[in-house]
């Protein structure tokens, strides 16, 4: 069985990690060690069983890796840069995309929704516990009948009843929802037809989350079907700074780039496995790495990694400067996930028949890439966002 043993990243051909400060490199090294020591030994068995290792929540609590983007709520000090948090997502996905997705839903989607959509009282009430993972968050947007068209097609409703709101509807593909303490639920206000956000606590009557079974990708993530039947939420738990879907889009714009970093991590993980296998596996009396066609696949993989990393490095700089736009994150998500699909396929090809066996890990990367390719906006939808930006013409139907 293959495992990550190196301290550094052999796929960093152009020394992109050198763009981090010394302190940031220490955090990245801590992330790398945590994933190698705490996560890597667990993932193959849990992926095969389709279960989430709940014990990792306690280990994340002790890691000091949670809440870093949120000044005043994570570890003492300024908020982590987008470059650091992006590379952390990459480093997690380099070992396992499912655990990276669990972390991203909590640390990205749920916490950022409260940070940007909540008022100061709400941030102070929920974020401290989430920043230490004493409480876990989820983000409920997608619905059974609405994915890419959720902005116009959201069926989940919110009805004001005095000082409370009543939520009714269904959500699908909601990561962490089966065990989350706080679920950010998006619903359409029946009075003004605008989307609003609500934080629904664990155990709230009428809220039911059922794990989706039989997945062939990101099997460790506990995605859920959520039913909301007369769920009553106090006005105090409605995100006070969200008044329309534009505010939701702002959250997605910020988190979409994190998915692109995940895709880069999956590329790197698959490439490393293939490179190691090619140097160890012999055919016709020589290592696979000694054959021209194998070297061609490895070099094309490294080129995809390197070009994607450079794109994401500049994207992070735009984010840190506060100048990035929707089309920037959309281009990154569309391009990097497409390159990821190529790399995991080439890596599996190098493994031959062994590439479909979980013991060699590459099959997990190959399968997990399909979910990352689709969520946070399909390639087609992100292409339309970029197309509108560069042509001035909207091709949305």
Automatic annotation (TrEMBL):
Domain Acyl-CoA dehydrogenase/oxidase C-terminal: 248-390
Domain Acyl-CoA oxidase/dehydrogenase middle: 138-230
Domain Acyl-CoA dehydrogenase/oxidase N-terminal span(s) in chain numbering: 21-134
The keyword DNA-binding is annotated on this UniProt entry: no
Cofactor: FAD
Top-level taxon in the UniProt lineage: Bacteria
Keywords on record: FAD, Flavoprotein, Oxidoreductase
Family: Belongs to the acyl-CoA dehydrogenase family.
Name of the protein described by the UniProt record: Acyl-CoA dehydrogenase family protein
Upper classification of the organism: Bacteria, Bacillati, Actinomycetota, Actinomycetes, Kitasatosporales
């Amino acid at each position: 069985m293959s495992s990550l043993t190196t301290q550094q990243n052999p796929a960093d051909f152009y020394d992109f990690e050198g763009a981090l400060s010394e302190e940031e490199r220490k955090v990245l090294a801590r992330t790398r060690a945590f994933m190698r020591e705490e996560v890597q030994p667990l993932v193959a068995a849990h992926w095969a069983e389709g279960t989430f290792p709940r014990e990792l929540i306690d280990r994340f609590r002790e890691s000091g890796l949670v809440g870093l983007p949120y000044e005043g709520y994570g570890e003492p000090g300024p908020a982590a840069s987008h470059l650091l948090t992006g590379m952390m997502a990459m480093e997690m996905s380099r070992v396992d995309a499912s655990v990276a997705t669990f972390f991203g839903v909590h640390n990205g989607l749920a916490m950022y929704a409260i940070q940007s959509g909540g008022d100061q009282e709400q941030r102070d009430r929920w974020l401290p516990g989430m920043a230490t993972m004493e409480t876990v968050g989820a983000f409920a947007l997608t619905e059974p009948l609405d994915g890419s068209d959720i902005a116009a097609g959201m069926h989940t409703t919110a009805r004001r009843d005095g000082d409370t709101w009543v939520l009714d509807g269904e959500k699908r593909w909601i990561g962490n929802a089966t065990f989350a303490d706080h679920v950010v639920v998006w619903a359409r206000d029946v009075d003004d037809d605008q989307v609003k956000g609500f934080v629904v606590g664990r155990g709230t009557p009428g809220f039911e989350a059922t794990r989706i079974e039989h997945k062939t990708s990101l099997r460790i993530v506990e995605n859920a079907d959520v039913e909301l039947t007369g769920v009553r939420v106090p006005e105090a738990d409605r995100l006070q700074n969200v008044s329309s879907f534009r505010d939701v889009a702002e959250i997605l714009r910020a988190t979409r780039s994190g998915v692109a970093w995940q895709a880069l991590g999956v590329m790197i993980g698959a490439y490393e496995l293939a490179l190691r296998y090619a140097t160890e596996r012999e055919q016709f009396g020589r290592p696979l790495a000694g054959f021209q066609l194998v070297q061609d696949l490895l070099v094309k993989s490294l080129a995809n990694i390197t070009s994607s990393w450079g794109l994401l490095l500049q994207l992070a700089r735009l984010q840190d400067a506060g100048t990035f736009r929707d089309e920037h994150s959309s281009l990154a998500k569309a391009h990097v996930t497409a390159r990821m699909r190529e790399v995991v396929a080439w890596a599996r090809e190098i493994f031959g028949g062994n590439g479909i066996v979980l013991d060699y890990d590459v099959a997990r990367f190959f399968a997990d890439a399909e979910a990352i390719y689709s969520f946070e906006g399909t390639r087609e939808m992100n292409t339309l966002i970029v197309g509108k930006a560069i042509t001035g013409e909207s091709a949305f139907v």
